[in-house]
Predict the structure.
Amino acid sequence: MFIDQISVFLANQTGRLADVTEVLARENIDIRAMSLAENEEYGVLRIIVNDPGLAVEKLRAAGIAVRVTPVIAAKFGDEPGALNKVLSLLNDACVSLIYAYAFISPVGGGACVVLRTGDCGKAAGVLEANGIELMKAEDIHK
């Protein structure tokens, strides 16, 4: 039910993102989803990859600071209002949303949204109880 997300902390300098992608490419690690947020001094790259254990090992060996965070990935139809349904269910259950980003499912297509909430276990339970499919780690980490 939980997916391993890798957060990479990058100085806001030219080439730092390419440094990360070079390590991943060299090790044949596929990025399934990503989000990059930044400020004046640093950025936080959040990625879902096919082999998180290897990615963490190789990034750390290259001197790149990383952290692994469990997140959930909800899968739903690519249609108006589908995301709103997911967010409304979480809101009605008083589950706070910390951040989210989207990708296309590697299994059967369809829209997916990565959710980091104040309580991922509760969020997963609420969504599953309401018929929202959650991506399994083995569906993404292949």
In short: The first strand starts at residue 3 and ends at 11.
